[in-house]
């Protein structure tokens, strides 16, 4: 790209995605004005989509950090809608674009593909954007990105797309067909059909295609002070509340994979008397969390240390409450983190599980007698959830005297105490004694799993 509208985006976003690193390729700080024929929002959206496609950068770092500082609020909003929408619908957009190409068997240059996707998203999903703006700016983006030979093709494909009738819905759709229609890799939808049934898999895919909505599980707003902090998603908050309510009057708490700190803050607010240690292996994420905690009267008291949870110093002793909110695939958060579906591979699940088993096994050894540990993920995949819990429990129960207890009574108590709304269907929040939220399937929020261990 010859021009850049982004400033250095190294500040972290408000969180929600499972984990991350600072963007690997900082944007050049630009003093240039964007090309006259490309509006700032589309230029910024194009650049962010390019970075997400070609590096390990995360869209939320680029959108919610300082990278968009040069844009007006209206342009920031449009950039966010364009980026997240294009990422959500990318698979479905590619399926509509491909048959319109003269040589569909050839791989398009990445910037040309991005310009096409961005144009197609606006034409098919953004009612308020005039077709000519979507079309002509995608053409200009391809040209400005150094692909003038592709300008005619981008123009022709988007014109055909604008004129095409929307595809009719089939009477019976295969899993692969609904996965493609709803912008999901079919391997992921197939897994959800196997694990949760077709109706639930379809509901999850539909939920993932929307902006995350504010849920109604809780009777009050969460209690973050200052007003400048992001509201916790209902799934994330439920895990935090479950952990906080699992031990009353806890004195020593360890949040072992803590950043960006949403649940840490909740624990600090629910247990203001406790010595709360929050660790994270990423110095970048830990620093951002420490700043966030400083803005809250209870958060200020949290000790933050950069540490690998599987090798925490023995000097830290034992804890009567541990939250082990491990790094995971994040498949329960695709509405919020749409690009995960494009990077994740089936083989990643085994790698995640290995890391999760190492963290959980080590954290269980730090549990004081009578203490409880909450293991949680924002993954919908059994390999990272029930299977990790089972393997670690089998290996540790003799050595450590731990047992697994049902999360159900704690969730029921949260409702009796008025934390959960009276109308909330508590029975639907647990499955086989584990907490299990399924986005879109009777629950408005991210998909979370949690298991409760107790040391005898
Ligand atoms: C799912 S996120 C935690 C979200 C956080 N609990 C919240 O509610 O805001 C997982 C975190 O684990 C951290 N992490 C990954 N491996 C770790 C390890 N071995 N020890 C400690 N933290 C780790 C990642 O850097 C990431 O910040």
UniProtKB/TrEMBL annotation:
<feature type="active site" description="Nucleophile">
    <location>
        <position position="378"/>
    </location>
</feature>
<dbReference type="InterPro" id="IPR023267">
    <property type="entry name" value="RCMT"/>
</dbReference>
<dbReference type="InterPro" id="IPR001678">
    <property type="entry name" value="MeTrfase_RsmB-F_NOP2_dom"/>
</dbReference>
<dbReference type="GO" id="GO:0003723">
    <property type="term" value="F:RNA binding"/>
</dbReference>
<feature type="binding site">
    <location>
        <begin position="257"/>
        <end position="263"/>
    </location>
    <ligand>
        <name>S-adenosyl-L-methionine</name>
    </ligand>
</feature>
<feature type="binding site">
    <location>
        <position position="308"/>
    </location>
    <ligand>
        <name>S-adenosyl-L-methionine</name>
    </ligand>
</feature>
<feature type="region of interest" description="Disordered">
    <location>
        <begin position="1"/>
        <end position="35"/>
    </location>
</feature>
<dbReference type="GO" id="GO:0001510">
    <property type="term" value="P:RNA methylation"/>
</dbReference>
<keyword id="KW-0489">Methyltransferase</keyword>
<keyword id="KW-0694">RNA-binding</keyword>
<dbReference type="InterPro" id="IPR035926">
    <property type="entry name" value="NusB-like_sf"/>
</dbReference>
<dbReference type="Pfam" id="PF01189">
    <property type="entry name" value="Methyltr_RsmB-F"/>
</dbReference>
<keyword id="KW-0808">Transferase</keyword>
<keyword id="KW-0949">S-adenosyl-L-methionine</keyword>
<feature type="domain" description="SAM-dependent MTase RsmB/NOP-type">
    <location>
        <begin position="157"/>
        <end position="456"/>
    </location>
</feature>
<feature type="binding site">
    <location>
        <position position="280"/>
    </location>
    <ligand>
        <name>S-adenosyl-L-methionine</name>
    </ligand>
</feature>
<dbReference type="Pfam" id="PF01029">
    <property type="entry name" value="NusB"/>
</dbReference>
<comment type="similarity">
    <text>Belongs to the class I-like SAM-binding methyltransferase superfamily. RsmB/NOP family.</text>
</comment>
<feature type="binding site">
    <location>
        <position position="325"/>
    </location>
    <ligand>
        <name>S-adenosyl-L-methionine</name>
    </ligand>
</feature>
<dbReference type="InterPro" id="IPR006027">
    <property type="entry name" value="NusB_RsmB_TIM44"/>
</dbReference>
<protein>
    <submittedName>
        <fullName>Fmu (Sun) domain protein</fullName>
    </submittedName>
</protein>
<dbReference type="InterPro" id="IPR049560">
    <property type="entry name" value="MeTrfase_RsmB-F_NOP2_cat"/>
</dbReference>
<dbReference type="InterPro" id="IPR029063">
    <property type="entry name" value="SAM-dependent_MTases_sf"/>
</dbReference>
<dbReference type="GO" id="GO:0008173">
    <property type="term" value="F:RNA methyltransferase activity"/>
</dbReference>
<dbReference type="GO" id="GO:0006355">
    <property type="term" value="P:regulation of DNA-templated transcription"/>
</dbReference>
């Amino acid at each position: 790209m010859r021009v850049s509208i982004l400033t250095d985006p190294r500040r972290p976003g408000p969180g929600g995605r499972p984990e991350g690193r600072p963007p690997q390729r900082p944007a050049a700080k630009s003093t240039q004005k964007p090309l006259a024929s490309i509006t700032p929002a589309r230029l910024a959206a194009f650049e962010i989509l390019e970075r997400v496609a070609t590096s390990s950068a995360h869209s939320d770092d680029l959108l919610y950090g300082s990278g968009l500082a040069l844009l007006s609020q209206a342009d920031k909003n449009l950039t966010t809608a364009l980026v997240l929408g294009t990422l959500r619908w990318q698979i479905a957009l590619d399926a509509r674009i491909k048959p319109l190409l003269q040589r569909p068997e050839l791989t398009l240059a990445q910037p040309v593909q991005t310009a096409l996707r961005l144009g197609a998203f606006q034409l098919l999903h953004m009612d308020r954007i005039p077709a000519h703006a979507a079309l002509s700016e995608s053409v200009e983006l391809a040209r400005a990105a150094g692909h003038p030979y592709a300008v005619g093709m981008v123009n022709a494909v988007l014109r055909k797309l604008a004129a095409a009738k929307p595809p009719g819905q089939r009477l019976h759709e295969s899993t692969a067909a609904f996965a493609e229609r709803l912008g999901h890799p079919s391997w992921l939808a197939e897994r959800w059909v196997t694990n949760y049934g077709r109706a639930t898999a379809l509901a999850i895919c539909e939920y993932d295609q929307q902006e995350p909505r504010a849920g109604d599980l809780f009777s009050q707003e969460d209690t973050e002070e200052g007003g400048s902090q992001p509201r916790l998603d209902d799934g994330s908050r439920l895990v935090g509340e479950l952990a906080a309510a699992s031990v009353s009057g806890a004195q020593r708490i360890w949040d072992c994979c803590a950043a960006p700190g949403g649940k840490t803050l909740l624990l600090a607010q629910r247990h203001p008397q406790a010595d709360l240690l929050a660790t994270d292996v990423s110095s970048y994420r830990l620093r951002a969390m420490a700043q966030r905690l400083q803005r809250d009267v209870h958060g200020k008291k949290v000790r933050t240390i950069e540490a690998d949870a599987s090798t925490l110093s023995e000097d830290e002793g034992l804890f009567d409450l541990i939250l082990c909110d491990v790094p995971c695939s994040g498949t329960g958060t695709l509405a919020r983190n749409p690009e995960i579906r494009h990077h994740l591979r089936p083989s990643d699940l085994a790698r995640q599980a290995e890391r999760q088993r190492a963290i959980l096994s080590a954290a269980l050894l730090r549990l004081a007698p009578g203490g409880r540990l909450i293991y949680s993920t924002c993954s919908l995949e059994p390999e990272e959830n029930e299977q990790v819990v089972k393997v670690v429990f089998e290996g540790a129960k003799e050595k450590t005297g731990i047992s697994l207890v049902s999360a159900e009574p704690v969730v029921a108590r949260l409702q009796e105490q008025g934390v959960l709304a009276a109308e909330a269907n508590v029975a639907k929040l647990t499955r086989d004694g584990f907490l299990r939220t399924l986005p879109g399937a009777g629950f408005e929020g991210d998909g979370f799993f949690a298991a409760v261990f107790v040391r005898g």
